[in-house]
Design goal:
The chain is an all-alpha fold. It has three helices and no strands. Helix 1 (2-33) runs parallel beside helix 3 (63-101).
Length: 108
Amino acid sequence: MIQLLIILLQVIGDLVGGAAIAAAVSWALWNLFKVTHHPELGPVAGFLIVATILLATHQGTRMLPIITIFSLISIFCGWSEGSVWRSRIDAQKTKYKVIKVAGMHRSP
């Protein structure tokens, strides 16, 4: 019974740890790719990095497949949020250009 609880705690720890690592990698790369105005490519790059590590090590640890799965999930979340982010930034730029053309030289 104790061994079953230990295994259960290890599995839960692996899932939570894998999700946390995938989220941290996606967040860091999201902010890095915001400089190029294409933040939706951050989670894609994170997935490619993790998948490359997984393929290069051949065995890896037991957490690498979990991180790969969560990184793949973050691609779908990041892609849709990236297009919303870019449209919001484009709308702000358009609003600023309209104000500047109208003769007002202050930002909104």
